[in-house]
Amino acid sequence: MDGKNEYLLIFRGKEWWRGLSPEELRNTMELIKGWFDRLTESGELKAAQPLVREGALVSGRNGSVVADGPFAESKEVIGGYAVLKVNSLDDAIAIARSCPTLKFGMQAEVRPVAEECPMLAYARRVILEEQFATASA
Amino acid sequence: MSTQTKNGYMLIFRGTDWHNGLSPEQMQQVASQWMAWFKRLTAEGKVVAGNPLEREGKIVSGKNGRVVADGPFAESKEAIGGYFLLNVASLDEAVAIAQECPGLPYGAKVEVRPVMDQCALSGEALPENQLAEATA
User: Fold this and answer.
1) What is the pLDDT of residues A27-75, one digit of tens each?
2) Of B4, B64, B81, the CB nearest to A49
3) ipTM for this model
4) Cβ of B100 and A63 within 8 Å?
5) Mutate to test the interface with B, among A7, A9, A40, A59 (most CBs of B within 10 A)
6) What is the Cα–Cα distance from B94 to B90, expressed in whole angstroms?
7) pTM of this prediction?
8) Which of A3, A60, A70, B104 is in the most buried spot, having the most CB atoms within 10 Å?
């Protein structure tokens, strides 16, 4: 291990580019490209992809409920993701804050990637605590 | 923008509260089913990446990212608990895989989203294309 951690950046927001002038679009595209190029060169960006604003939501026992979007209108909709490899959450937040599309209303969610499933870690801790309690009773 | 050449689908696991009613032993069981599912899909070449996420983090917004807010990422129906990146050819195949998610019987939801090979900005939103749309 190189001591670095992974963080998932989740880009959220409507199609913020609608309503921009051609000039603004061109400038923004260049800023975005420069942002990704810089992070790629520095080795801080491991992967990044945009998502199509369509898809499905699967729920219910055995996934019996399959609903279509809508994924376009919501302010919360995920428009893409990036995986960062940096030293700390603060570093990941600093990168998120430098994202050129924030000024158009886009939001960036910054989440540490877990080494193991948090539910499993929790269950293990509870079971250990129970065993201690039983042993010391 | 894309650092992967192949498109595919992203499974986004929604809900970080659905396991609250389970005993620790049941949680371990669901977690091991989930890991076995991930390993099988990896062996079949259908999943190329996947991670659970910590129930913490921040949301950055505002001009120059001046607003840095907390979650909520724990105990939420909508919060993202983890993701898979799938290497499959169709939405139907991705949905079929999503339907195998071991968290579904307990209330987890799975969002299935096609991955683009390039930013939407360089496609439909290009000034030239917007112009074409406007004059069509």
Assistant:
1) 999 999 999 999 999 999 999 999 998 999 999 999 999 998 777 677 8
2) B4
3) 0.92
4) yes
5) A59
6) 6
7) 0.89
8) B104
